Amino acid sequence: MVERVRAGDARALARAISLVEDDAPGAVEVLSACFRYAGDALRIGVTGSPGAGKSTLVDRLARRYREREETVGVLAVDPTSPFTGGAILGDRIRMAERLSDAGMYVRSMATRGALGGLAQTTADAVTVLEASGKQKVLIETVGVGQDEVDIVRLADVTIVVLVPGMGDDVQSIKAGIMEIADIFVINKADREGAERVEKEVRAMQSLAMKHSAEDEWVPPMVKTVATAGQGIEELVAAIDRMHEWLSEGGRLAARRRRYWRERIVEMMRVALLREVHQHGFSPAEIEEYAAKVEQRREDPYKLVPRLIAERFAVMEEGR
Amino acid sequence: MVERVRAGDARALARAISLVEDDAPGAVEVLSACFRYAGDALRIGVTGSPGAGKSTLVDRLARRYREREETVGVLAVDPTSPFTGGAILGDRIRMAERLSDAGMYVRSMATRGALGGLAQTTADAVTVLEASGKQKVLIETVGVGQDEVDIVRLADVTIVVLVPGMGDDVQSIKAGIMEIADIFVINKADREGAERVEKEVRAMQSLAMKHSAEDEWVPPMVKTVATAGQGIEELVAAIDRMHEWLSEGGRLAARRRRYWRERIVEMMRVALLREVHQHGFSPAEIEEYAAKVEQRREDPYKLVPRLIAERFAVMEEGR
Questions:
Q1: Is A277 exposed, middle or buried (0-12, 13-18, 19+ CB in 10 A)?
Q2: CA distance B304 to B316
Q3: Three-class SS of B62-88
Q4: Are B85 and B193 within 8 A, CB to CB?
Q5: Which residues share a beta bridge with A42?
Q6: CB–CB of B163/B51 below 8 Å?
Q7: What b/e sequence results for B146-185 when a residue is b if at least 16 CB atoms lie within 10 Å of its CB, and e otherwise?
Q8: How far is CA A142 from the centre of its chain?
Q9: Deepest in the core among A8, A24, B56, B208, taking most CB within 10 A?
């Protein structure tokens, strides 16, 4: 299967990602095999409020890269709402129509793995996409929760999409995401209020700049009207500039090292949690403890440390 | 300190919650002492999109309970955005003005604990509030991310606040939250489009009802205009009915048992993660592994299981 993924076979790619998404038997082996060939793509994260026009923007970006003869993988990560489901699906179907193009693969992700969460599943899917030789991997998600911040951390270049005319209250992007933005896009820039959004971001930036080192990247601001294709060329140029900047002086490697630092700890957390589930405590045991705690016959703040101490031994410096 | 918390001393309460929030030395002991006196309050979760008017609604509810001579604790959990910070703070200050009322305590939570995440910190704060004898604990949060779903799971009664006039795209509430709603509130119900929101929720409900058992609670829908105090009486009545229903046939106990089942596993996860940090791997080690993975000299999918197996021993049935 991995051989066919590497050859860019879209069906093998789809099956491999499904395997990973379902955490099915063999998933780890596939990932391990893919990892050897991963790491060469530029990962571009696109995030912003619901309704900011991210899908259209990603669509335009992908198209532009295909015109440049670059291969593209798109992961649309959707923390589903029953209300938005329809709209997002519609967009996806439009994009999927280009599936006949062998240089492009589009996938939406919603299932969160049993233990690892959506961010890890997305990261694993990126590994598979990279093994298939995609040069650009676009990761699209709404920037509203901690999951989404974690997803965005995958990216080498993070684009935060803002829109004019949404009240302060509705432009509900996590603080953590504003901070990791590499490029700001003001989409629907033909609407009233674009200047106000720009001003707000500039104010935030100048505040942040006081604390930043001299050779740091200053996030540029690009105005787009994605539905009309306006500003896409400028956005592509901004991404190219960022890519160039990252390639100098080992910056990309440093970023990815930082990413792996967090990811390895997260993978350990999941591996340990798996141990808890597999070897630690049966559902019946947990149920029994839950009943006792509910009846206040057990104090969870004492119970849990006791259980962990009883069941798991840490071998200090144990190699 | 716990004695003074129990006496309802607001300053002791504030200090105890800060201790828990900072995961400071002594936090576990305070929680353990508080736990003995916790569990008697009705926990009411209020969630919805940003801008749905949750703060005002919570404010009105709290005020109504105080009129009924019930003591109230309010936790406003804020997954902060730099754009919304100001507005939320403003609301909080208004509420804090009533801090002179000894029967009411208001607190906003934003810091996520080092390891446990915002949901656990919130749960711990609820334990402290309950120990102080509050009869109603209101937990307010926006319903957009996984963190927020986890926070809402704390509640005995979950209120989901919707508003007319926000596009499908903006009413970005997690599917998981719609499913655990016990009461729907259509706030700003004097606005155009209230009927449409109502119809959408009813459609979703009738779909869900097909799969539900006969004695299940059917979430009622309450229309409010919180700023004008309209519908608050009806909402309080709906909460009272739900409380009554929960009190029959051990339903409340069953709900809380289910909650504790998940919470205990989560507490174990955190306890294990703490072991990883304290005894498992030094930052320097993690840094070294991250560098190797970044250079593709190590495969993380093989590295992590190996490290876990080397360092942690599971004692099967080890009691």
A1: middle
A2: 21
A3: HHHHHHCCCCEEEEEECCCCCCCHHHH
A4: no
A5: A136
A6: yes
A7: bbbbbbbbbbbbbbbbbbbebebbbbbbbbbbbebbbbbb
A8: 10
A9: B56
Domains in chain B: ranges and CATH: 36-249 (3.40.50.300)
B168 interfacial to chain A (CB closer than 8 Å) = yes
| Residue A249, min C-alpha distance to chain B (Å) | 15
In tens digits, what is the pLDDT along chain B, a chain of 319 residues?
A: 889 999 888 889 999 998 988 888 889 899 999 998 998 999 999 988 777 888 899 999 999 999 999 999 999 886 544 344 334 444 555 555 555 677 899 888 765 544 567 788 889 999 999 999 999 999 998 766 666 777 878 999 999 998 887 654 445 566 667 778 899 999 999 998 888 888 888 877 776 666 666 678 889 999 999 999 999 999 999 999 999 999 999 999 999 998 898 888 888 878 877 776 676 678 888 889 999 998 888 899 888 888 888 877 666 544 3
Q: What angle do CA B119, B125, B128 make, to 5 degrees?
A: 150
Residues 6+ apart with CB under 8 A from B272: A269, A272, A273, A276, A308, A312
pLDDT surpassing 50 at residue A87: no
Alpha carbon B285 to its chain centroid, in Å, reads 35
Q: Which residues of A touch B173 (CB under 8 A)?
A: 81, 83
| B301 contacts A28? CB cut-off 8 A | yes
* Whole-number Å distance between alpha carbons of A48 and A43: 17
Provide the angle, in degrees to the nearest 10, between the axes of the packed helices B283-294 and B300-311.
150
Contact A300 B148 (CB under 8 A): no
Size of interface A-B (CB pairs under 8 A): 260
The answer to whether the beta carbons of residues B185 and B162 sit under 8 Å apart is yes
pLDDT at B176: 65
* Cβ-based neighbour number of residue B214 at 10 Å: 4
Task: Read off the pLDDT band of A314 (50, 70, 90).
Answer: low
For chain B, the farthest-separated pair of C-alpha atoms sits apart, in whole angstroms, at 67
Nearest to A268 among B169, B299, B308 (CB): B308
Task: Read off the pTM.
Answer: 0.69
- The CA-CA-CA angle for residues B29, B33, B34, to 5°, reads 115
Chain A nearest-CA distance from B67, in A, is 30
Q: Tell me if chain A has a CB within 8 Å of the CB of B315.
A: yes
Tokens, residue A181: 């933005």
Relative to beta strand A183-186, strand A104-109 is unpaired
Q: How near does any CA of chain B get to the CA of A67, in Å?
A: 30
For residue B281, what is the nearest residue in chain A, using CA coordinates?
Answer: A317
Interface membership of B282 toward A (CB under 8 Å): no
Distance CA A286, CA A270 (A): 19
Tell me: pLDDT of A282 over 70.
Answer: yes
Question: By the CB < 8 Å criterion, does B96 face chain A?
Answer: no
Q: Which residues of A touch B263 (CB under 8 A)?
A: 300
Q: pLDDT at position A286, please?
A: 87
CA–CA separation, B211 and A165 (whole Å): 41
Residue A106: which residues within 8 A CB-CB, separation 6 or more?
A62, A73, A74, A76, A92, A95, A96, A98, A99
Whether ipTM > 0.90 holds is: no
